[in-house]
């Protein structure tokens, strides 16, 4: 009945004992509230006769309405603790699960390995799955995304820096490419999520970040493919697996930048593993 | 240089946004995977030759022997699948650090045995942990492996642009036969 704590006094993540949901984190001894959950947007169905009425599809992310629906409210989790790594396995549904990991030595990040699919479409609704983080950071409509590994760019919600914009689609109009990292800041605090691939991401409310992890849509968006983004393999909808890494720290002391840089190198230029069968070689002989 | 060409071609093809953003049809994605696989296979030749050369430099007298050491990649480790580990009770994991400074890395490898020991080249036995691989609720064809656990160990202070190998031996290992023969 006690919440699961992954980490130490300086850096940790607290998960709900029953559901495994993220409840809070400590960065540089500063606690802040942060939760994470999976949601989905229903894909918009248009007639494709004019631009404003195109369906959500391979090239267009166009949700039907602005509200994302929760994938599941009844999560189940199990936690495995050991000398090297603590991890919690969380099941949202038959088609969505996640492992939250904390490695114990010199670590200032939490790893989240998500597994999504096959996205059910029996209800004839296309779905676009997101992982959403909610925190108490006062981000003031600002968030930061990288730009193909070049520099972090400041993004302001419902705003364009070079023209006066009239936002008609508040979700998709605020989505930006995230090639490796999306960040929120509040005063001296910084909170970043690193991705293992390019994904779409945004911050629709202060303190919030979301990243799209998988999509399955039933209508073509009329941009040339002429087919819906409704793929199968072995007769089932596609399953996607990937990782997000959460990290952060203080901006003024440099810990935020140092941790993020170090983590980026660790995960984006990760060591390579090679294997050699050694059934007929003893340790001494191998040495 | 010739062995790099496949990967060069793959990288050239994958400048296209379909290869990066996931907007392509699955058959196109599968074709990108095929092109990348060929690139990895050919780069593997270089990696194997380079690592054997590094080993040989330390023990010139044993060049001919170490030249024969096969060093393979497991490209399906992201889904906890590696056929070399499925069929071997003892194996060596070589961890190469592509960065120009020391790094430490938690190695995770899928295994099907009940207990394992991991030794570094000095013979020191490392701490290990076995963690269960989450099993899917719905059986979907895709991952084909008898491994039910992941073996975790900490490869500490890997030398810059260098490697360290770890000798892993298992006991109570269940040998799996043709049921798990890996399809291409």
User: Residue-averaged pLDDT of chain A, rounded?
Assistant: 91
Q: Per DSSP, what share of the residues of chain B sits in E-state strands of 2 or more residues?
A: 15-25%
Q: Secondary-structure element order of chain B, as H and E? A: HHHHHEEEEEE
Shape of chain B: globular
- The average pLDDT of chain B is 84
Number of strands of chain B: 6
State the secondary-structure class of chain B.
Answer: alpha+beta
* Residue runs with pLDDT of under 50 for 5 or more positions of chain A: none
The largest β sheet of chain B comes out as:
3 strands, antiparallel
Calculate the terminal CA-CA distance of chain A, rounded to whole Å: 48 Å
Multimer state: heterodimer
What is the strand arrangement across the widest sheet of chain B?
A: 1-6-3
Level of helix content of chain A?
Answer: under 10%
* Number of strand elements of chain A: 21
Number of helices of chain A: 2
Coarse shape of chain A: globular
Proportion of residues in β-strands of chain A: 35-45%
Largest interface: A-B, 48 and 64 residues
């Amino acid at each position: 009945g006690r919440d699961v704590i992954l980490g130490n006094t300086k850096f940790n993540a607290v998960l709900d004992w029953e559901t495994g949901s993220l409840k809070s984190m400590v960065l540089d001894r500063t606690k802040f509230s942060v939760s994470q959950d999976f949601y989905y947007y229903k894909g918009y169905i248009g007639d494709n006769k004019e631009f404003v009425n195109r369906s959500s599809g391979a090239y267009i992310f166009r949700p039907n309405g602005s509200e994302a629906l929760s994938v599941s409210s009844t999560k189940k989790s199990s936690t495995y603790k050991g000398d090297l790594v603590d991890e919690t396995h969380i099941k949202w549904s038959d088609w969505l699960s996640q492992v939250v990991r904390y490695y114990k030595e010199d670590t200032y990040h939490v790893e989240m390995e998500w597994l999504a699919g096959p996205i059910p479409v029996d209800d004839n609704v296309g779905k676009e799955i997101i992982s959403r983080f909610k925190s108490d950071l006062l981000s003031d409509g600002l968030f930061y995304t990288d730009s193909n590994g070049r520099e972090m760019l400041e993004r302001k919600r419902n705003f364009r820096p070079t023209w006066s914009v009239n936002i008609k689609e508040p979700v998709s109009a605020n989505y930006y490419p995230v090639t490796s990292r999306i960040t929120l800041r509040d005063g001296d605090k910084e909170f970043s999520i690193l991705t293992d691939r390019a994904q779409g991401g945004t911050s629709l409310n202060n303190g919030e970040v979301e990243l799209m992890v998988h999509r399955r849509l039933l209508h073509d968006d009329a941009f040339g493919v002429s087919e819906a983004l409704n793929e199968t393999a072995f007769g089932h909808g596609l399953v996607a697996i990937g990782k997000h890494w959460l990290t952060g720290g203080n901006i003024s002391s440099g810990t935020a930048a140092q941790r993020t840089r170090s983590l980026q190198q660790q995960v984006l230029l990760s060591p390579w593993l090679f294997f050699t069968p050694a059934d007929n070689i003893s340790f001494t002989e191998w040495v | 240089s010739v062995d790099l060409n496949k990967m060069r071609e793959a990288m050239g093809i994958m400048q296209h946004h379909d290869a990066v953003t996931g907007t392509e049809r699955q058959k196109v994605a599968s074709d990108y995977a095929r092109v990348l696989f060929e690139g990895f296979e050919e780069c593997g030749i270089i990696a194997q030759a380079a690592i054997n050369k590094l080993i040989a430099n330390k023990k010139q007298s044993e060049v001919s022997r170490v030249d024969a050491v096969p060093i393979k990649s497991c490209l399906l480790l992201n889904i906890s699948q590696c056929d070399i580990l499925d069929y071997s009770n003892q194996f060596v994991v070589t961890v190469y650090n592509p960065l120009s400074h020391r790094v430490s890395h938690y190695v995770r490898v899928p295994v099907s045995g009940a207990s394992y020991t991991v030794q570094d080249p000095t013979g020191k036995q490392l701490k290990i942990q076995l963690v269960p691989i989450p099993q899917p609720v719905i059986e979907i064809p895709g991952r084909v492996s008898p491994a039910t656990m992941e073996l975790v160990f900490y490869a500490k202070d890997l030398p810059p642009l260098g490697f360290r190998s770890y000798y892993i031996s298992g006991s109570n290992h269940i040998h799996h036969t043709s049921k798990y023969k890996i399809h291409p």
